[in-house]
Amino acid sequence: MDKFMQLSSMDAYYEQVVKRKMNSTTVSGLILGMILIVAVLVVSIWLSMTILSWLFPIALIMLGLGVYLIYYILKNSRVEYEYTFVIGELRVARIKGKSKRKTITYFDVKSIDDIDKFIDPETGKKNVDLGRFRVILHAAMDDHREDTYYMIIHDKVRRQPAVLLFTPNERTLEMIQPYFSVELKKKFLKRKKEQEQREKAAALTEKTVSDAASAPAGEKSFAEQEKKAEQAQNAELKAEKDAEKKAEKKAEKKADLKSEKKPDPETKKPTDQTSAADNKESQNNKSKQNQSQNKNKNQNKNSGKKNAGQKGKKSGKK
């Protein structure tokens, strides 16, 4: 039973009722009780008709008590849980036999510390350690169902932290989600998205397996060949990518080596300038040496001419 009445954008009322699945202990107890009642009744009737006739009224009384006991057990074993969401508060009540109603807990949705599926679909393990909590509240259809969630709450009835196991539908989750804290909302949406992706992948895998199983032998062999060809093509593409990566690495190494061998242009410029300056200085020195040598030659020539003139004068005098 689902009831919903929108009051405003954030204030709402929503009610969900789920039926508790009878566990194996309750079912086995009912079966055992019925067997014992029938056995005692049969023995009492047989004894009252053969040996002890006065047991017949007692057998009828026992029959009536047995029927009432079975009815009482069946009535109390029909348990329903009611989740009522009203303006940011969630109330959980237990209803027995559609007559006895008792509030299990109520709490502010903003105070929820964590929420997730109780059983991990992949590993089959529990996502929360129940041994850490003193108060564990069972309000789910079945604790081991895939759609059973756990919530770590601040119980207002007992005024202490508690773990609540319940089975919400999509509408209940949509109603309480806006009241989550920012951190819890991000965590919850991330988990929900991952779960949807896993479910899609599982459904796709199941579909491919069923298609392959239902296909004829010829189509199976063709599908296997197609799969092998696809695997070989993927391997070739991977090998080509690896070869391209190796070639790129070699080219990068060669470029690094060339850059190390080439002189730095900034260091090259001053060396060129110094060599040009040295050349100019050597040319100037050579020109100076040539000028000095020419001067010396001219001086030698002039001195030779003077000596020759003096010798000519001396010989003329003689």
Written account of the structure:
The protein is an alpha+beta fold. It has a domain at 2-180. It is 59% helix and 19% strand. The chain has helices at residues 24-50, 55-77, 170-176, 182-214, 217-261, 265-317, and strands at 2-6, 12-19, 79-86, 89-96, 100-108, 114-117, 136-139, 149-155, 160-166. The strands form 2 sheets. Strands 1-2-3-4-5 form a 5-stranded antiparallel sheet. A hairpin with a 2-residue loop joins strand 3 (79-86) and strand 4 (89-96). Helix 1 runs antiparallel to helix 2 (55-77). The longest helix is centred in the C-terminal third of the chain and has 53 residues, at 265-317. The chain is elongated. The model is unreliable at 1-10, 265-274 and 311-318 (pLDDT under 50).
Outline the fold blueprint.
Layout: E1 2-6, E2 12-19, H1 24-50, H2 55-77, E3 79-86, E4 89-96, E5 100-108, E6 114-117, E7 136-139, E8 149-155, E9 160-166, H3 170-176, H4 182-214, H5 217-261, H6 265-317
Parallel strand pairs: 7-9
Antiparallel strand pairs: 1-2, 2-3, 3-4, 4-5, 6-8, 8-9
Helix pairs in contact: 1-2
Characteristic terms for this protein:
elongated, five-stranded antiparallel beta sheet, disordered N terminus, 318 residues
- The proportion of residues forming helix, as a percent range, comes to 55-70%
Shape: elongated
Number of strands: 9
Q: H/E element string?
A: EEHHEEEEEEEHHHH
Number of helices: 6
Strand order of the largest sheet: 1-2-3-4-5
How much of the residues is beta strand, in percent? Answer: 15-25%
Terminal Cα span: 164 Å
Mean pLDDT: 76
Uncertain spans: 1-10, 265-274, 311-318
Helix/strand-derived class? alpha+beta
Largest sheet: 5 strands, antiparallel
How large, in whole angstroms, is the Cα Rg?
52 Å
